[in-house]
Amino acid sequence: MRIYRRLYRHYGDLKWWPGESPLEVSVGAILTQNTAWSNVEKAITRLKEARSLSVKALVRLSHGRLARLIKAAGYFNVKARRLKNFISFLESRYGGSLKKMLHQDLDRLRTELLSINGTGPETADSILLYAAEKPIFVVDAYTKRILSRHGVMPYEKSYEEFQKLFMVHLPLDVPLYNQYHAMLVNVGKDFCRSRPLCASCPLNGWRGVPPLKAG
DNA sequence: CACCAGGCAAGTA
DNA sequence: TACTTGCATGGT
Question: Cα(A210)–Cα(A201) distance, rounded to whole angstroms?
């Protein structure tokens, strides 16, 4: 896509990575559901301080203790349950080996992840791309907002429709999808927060769509 | 003070 | 199938 090149000219290589290990990436993917990443970082930090960012520790933790540790990420009761669901699946099906679980082929792993209660399409694809390094495009709120705003696809189209749009126009390439997603998140943060910022968005003029005007 | 942030599942009609 | 609602903290 030409949008990619336009964004690349603006940002250059980002080499974005939302975690230091596959487990940290997976935990972060669940914690960031409808939540600012800055709050997720606080929760991850608490988990590390408590030496609890490991499969064994997470299995051992009670719901209440886990919920307290991740409090800063919001929805802590829901997310504690979802983390437990993920870890329980890992324990029972793979003896706690995340590596083994992530080693499968993309389609099987995606189906498995989606079968876990609390892991929807975006969470599953984040784990697939960033933890398992499988070539799947991650669609998030920024992606839908930015593409619909610039007249590429209506906002109400499904997750899979947005995902297909990227994947039929681009090669299956992990670093490419990583870079593209990172750039879209940055566009969202850098230019979609207010109208004055919007005016300098690198995508303005795409398909003739002008920046938003005041009023 | 109000509003929003890198979703998802469960309930309702 | 297609809405609607609950979940919750921290930043602006």
Answer: 10
